[in-house]
């Protein structure tokens, strides 16, 4: 049974939001505006920033910098709290969530009255452990930075490699996935690789660079429809990217990819953008699940039979009442659903159930960049190609960056990129220090110092 909160009640209802992506951070922002201090809101996320994923492929090419597209979640916290931790268990019976603090791995338990599940999705390797081990992915900021570092290191290595066969192997870059993420990362790295080779690597013939997209479908970008998809395929191929359609990657090693038609591609780079699934924690919840483990929600975005739990974004499964098709996993849907969830939470908490809203949204359009100043867009059924579509993409996503600071940074980086050559600086590996114990430190330090001459030690 859901416990109703009256505005006169002394204890404020506790709202726990899990995930700080498009869905979670937008619920956080909206719910604070609507409820102010009338609820105790806490957002828990394993990243202390909100990541603007549509521009992630531009991090892998160095067009943008990581801080351009990531905004600290605390920037959005007016009355709410933020907890930097990984969710490790969700107990829907006792209304408790267990988290592991990122810094020192300490476990903490949160209680809630209302839970918002917004933990997004993760890469789906369809059980292929070798691909999981050897492929780069493009889901997080670390992924994009890793791709950038790797492709620069590959260029450095290829420049020194005297064996022509090995050099050709190094210069083959395979991207699996013909959807938005796969196509955008392939076109970004293709442009970067040619630009960098031409300007800096004298021993690399840029004609030897081969970027290959492997698509399981008959073409690429199925989301934009056949005509725009064909235009995109044609353009991408003309820009030098090879596209292998109706083909799947079925195995991989550190130096090759095996395709479903038994072709082996010797290469040193494999990027996987071949599909998503939900977090295992979400998949394991005892409630109804749809395709890829997504949580089945009603039109109010609540879990069936669990009305105090809302789910949205990539984690939620809901059919469009008009078309009957399941809403796609896009930022656009996550943002819209966040508005509905916040309204419904406010209505619940203030006891105005009649004010609850059903989620009913029709996609206004889809856009993708497919090369230097070229894109495709389908907006309200209107097809837009080439430069116009690319400009629309930039304008739309730029306007949707969460703060003015990010808008200025991105605009400057885009501008600088038009003026200067590709930046080929690589960061190498990043040293990370993690504290594993933070229990009353003074005592644990004393404990560890017992055998040493502790009489001479003093503490602040
Ligand atoms: C490369 C790329 C390009 C894309 N381009 C577009 C585009 O152009 N247009 C578009 O509409 N969509 C695009 N998308 C899809 C879009 O990013 C997602 O649909 C959207 O992010 C979904 O929002 P979400 O909040 O559900 O999930 P996310 O934004 O992924 O957020 C999930 C949050 O949960 C947190 N989290 C996950 N697990 C845990 C845990 N165990 N403990 C604590 N925190 C956890 C994560 O850290 C993150 O903060 C793109 C995606 C990618 C990867």
What does this structure look like?
- This protein has helices at residues 22-35, 57-60, 129-134, 141-160, 164-170, 180-200, 225-238, 280-283, 331-349, 386-399, 404-419, 441-448; strands at 14-18, 40-45, 49-51, 70-72, 81-91, 96-101, 107-111, 114-117, 121-123, 136-137, 172-176, 210-214, 242-244, 249-253, 256-259, 264-266, 269-272, 276-278, 295-296, 302-303, 306-311, 316-317, 365-371, 374-379, 382-385.
- The radius of gyration is 24 Å and the shape is globular.
- It has two domains: 14-122 and 277-362, FAD/NAD(P)-binding domain (3-Layer(bba) Sandwich), CATH 3.50.50.60; 129-274 and 366-419, 3-Layer(bba) Sandwich (FAD/NAD(P)-binding domain), CATH 3.50.50.
- The protein is α/β, with parallel strands linked by helices and 460 residues long.
- The structure holds flavin-adenine dinucleotide (FAD).
- Residues 19-24, 44-47, 53-54, 56-57, 86-87, 118-120, 138-139, 180-181, 279, 281, 313-315, 329-332, 334 line the site of flavin-adenine dinucleotide.
What's the short story on this structure?
This protein is of the alpha/beta class. Helices cover 32% and strands 24% of the residues. The model has no long low-confidence stretch (mean pLDDT 92).
Biggest sheet strand order reads 7-6-5-2-1-8-21-20
- CATH class of the largest domain equals Alpha Beta
Rg on CA atoms, Å: 24 Å
> Strand fraction band?
15-25%
* Helical content band: 25-40%
The biggest sheet, with number of strands, parallel, antiparallel or mixed sense and barrel status, is: 8 strands, mixed
Low-confidence blocks of residues: none
| Termini Cα gap | 52 Å
Number of DSSP helical runs: 12
Number of strands: 25
Shape: globular
* Structural category: alpha/beta
Name the hetero compounds present: flavin-adenine dinucleotide
């Amino acid at each position: 049974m859901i416990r109703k909160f009256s505005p006169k009640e002394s204890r404020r209802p506790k709202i726990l939001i899990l995930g700080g992506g498009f869905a979670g951070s937008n619920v956080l922002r909206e719910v604070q505006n609507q409820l102010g201090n009338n609820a105790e809101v806490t957002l828990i996320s394993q990243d202390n920033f909100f990541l603007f994923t549509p521009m992630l492929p531009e991090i892998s090419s160095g067009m943008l910098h990581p801080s351009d597209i990531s905004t600290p979640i605390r920037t959005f916290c007016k009355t709410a709290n933020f907890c930097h931790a990984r969710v490790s268990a969700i107990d829907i019976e006792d209304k408790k969530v267990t988290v592991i603090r990122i810094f020192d791995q300490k476990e903490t338990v949160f209680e809630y009255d209302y839970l918002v599940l917004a933990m997004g999705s993760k890469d789906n390797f369809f059980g292929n452990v070798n691909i999981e081990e050897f492929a780069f992915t493009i889901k997080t900021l670390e992924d994009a930075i890793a791709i950038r570092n790797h492709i620069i290191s590959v260029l450095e290595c290829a420049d020194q490699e005297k064996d022509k066969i090995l050099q050709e192997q190094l210069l083959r870059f395979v991207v699996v996935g013909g959807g938005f993420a796969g196509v955008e990362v392939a076109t970004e790295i293709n442009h970067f690789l040619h630009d960098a080779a031409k300007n800096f690597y004298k021993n690399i013939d840029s004609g030897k660079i081969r970027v290959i997209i492997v698509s399981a479908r008959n073409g690429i970008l199925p989301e934009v429809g056949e005509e725009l998809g064909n235009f995109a395929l044609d353009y991408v191929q003309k820009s030098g990217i090879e596209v292998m359609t109706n083909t799947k990657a079925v195995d991989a090693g550190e130096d090759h990819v095996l395709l479903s038609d038994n072709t082996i591609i010797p290469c040193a780079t494999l990027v996987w953008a071949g599909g998503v699934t939900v977090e295992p924690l979400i998949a394991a919840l005892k409630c109804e699940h749809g395709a890829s483990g997504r949580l089945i929600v009603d039109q109010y975005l609540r879990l069936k039979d669990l009305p105090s739990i809302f789910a949205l974004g990539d984690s939620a499964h809901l059919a469009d009442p008009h078309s009957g098709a399941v809403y796609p996993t896009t930022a656009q849907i996550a943002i819209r659903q966040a508005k509905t969830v916040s309204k419904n939470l406010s209505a619940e908490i203030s006891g105005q159930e009649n004010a609850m809203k059903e989620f009913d949204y029709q996609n206004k359009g889809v856009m993708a960049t497919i090369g230097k100043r070229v894109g495709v867009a389908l907006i309200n059924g209107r097809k837009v190609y080439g430069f116009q579509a690319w400009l629309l993409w930039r304008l739309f996503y730029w306007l949707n960056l969460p703060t003015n600071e990010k808008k200025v940074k991105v605009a400057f980086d885009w501008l600088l990129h038009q003026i200067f050559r590709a930046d080929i600086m690589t960061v190498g590996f990043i040293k990370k220090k993690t504290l594993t114990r933070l229990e009353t430190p003074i005592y644990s330090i004393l404990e560890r110092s017992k055998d040493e001459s502790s009489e001479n030690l003093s503490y602040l």
